[in-house]
Amino acid sequence: MPDDEELFLRIIAGLDEGGVLQKVVLIGSWALRVYQTHFDNDPQVPVLTTTDVDFLVPNPPRLGTRFDVGRMLTGLGFDTDWASVGGYCKYESPDMEVEFLAPSRQPDRTKPVPVDELSTVAQPLEYVSLAYDQSMIVRHHGHDVRVPLPEAFVVLKLLVVPKRKDSQKRRKDILTVRELGGFLAELPDAGARFGTIVSSIPKKWQRTAYSVATEHCPELAFLLRL
């Protein structure tokens, strides 16, 4: 097992032991590893290498369980780093970076979100409420991991592509849309599943998702029309 995957599994094991793994949502590229498990290691499900492990908490962050994630991650070799811009907390090791994110809320869309129950501070982001609202639990290497519904994950990627300033991350998001979106579009009842996701988001988000899909994954764009 590669070192990065072993460290990732130790992170989710620590969150599971602390009783919070099912109360946060794993988003970002590491969710693709969980989707591979969900789809019986189908080779069409993409797996992209990344050093970022992102967990999403609700906003307001009421989890019902107290667990010091910083102490757990320190035990795994991570250092705590306070972002110079924004004031949220990151955890860094030579091989990986862990962040906690939260849906942004009006009127303080950029204000960091204290997560007292986890003794951390989350970064607020636009669109990610979709990933929390439309999520599922998958058994992955002995742990029940909460991830966005695969269709919600793809729609979220469609929404963030125009926001990406990092060209490498933008290319990875587009590749994920094409590969995972194309795979999901071929499954039975794909139209109904994507329709449920898209109908749950604001009209402005719908237009953005459809526009990006039209450019990068036309077979998916067909499913996003309401």
Description:
- With 226 residues, the chain is an alpha+beta fold.
- The chain folds into two domains: 1-148, Beta Polymerase, domain 2 (2-Layer Sandwich), CATH 3.30.460; 150-226.
- Helices cover 42% and strands 19% of the residues.
- The protein is built from nine helices and nine strands.
- A hairpin with a 4-residue loop joins strand 6 (113-115) and strand 7.
- The mean pLDDT is 91.
How is the topology of this model organized?
Layout: H1 3-17, E1 25-27, H2 31-38, E2 52-56, H3 69-75, E3 79-82, E4 89-92, E5 97-103, E6 113-115, E7 120-125, H4 129-133, E8 135-140, E9 143-148, H5 150-160, H6 167-185, H7 190-199, H8 203-216, H9 218-224
Parallel strand pairs: 2-5, 5-7
Antiparallel strand pairs: 1-2, 3-4, 4-5, 6-7, 8-9
Helix pairs in contact: 5-6, 5-8, 8-9
Largest sheet: number of strands, sense, barrel closure: 7 strands, mixed
The proportion of residues forming helix, as a percent range, comes to: 40-55%
The structural domain count equals 2
Number of helices: 9
Q: Oligomeric status of the shown chains? A: single chain
Topology pattern, helix = H, strand = E: HEHEHEEEEEHEEHHHHH
Number of strand elements: 9
Strand content: 15-25%
Shape: globular
Name given to the CATH architecture of the largest domain: 2-Layer Sandwich
CATH class descriptor of the largest domain: Alpha Beta
Radius of gyration using CA atoms only: 17 Å
What features would you highlight for this structure?
226 residues, alpha+beta, Beta Polymerase, domain 2, 2 domains, 7-stranded mixed β-sheet, two-stranded antiparallel ribbon, 9 helices, 9 strands, 42% helix
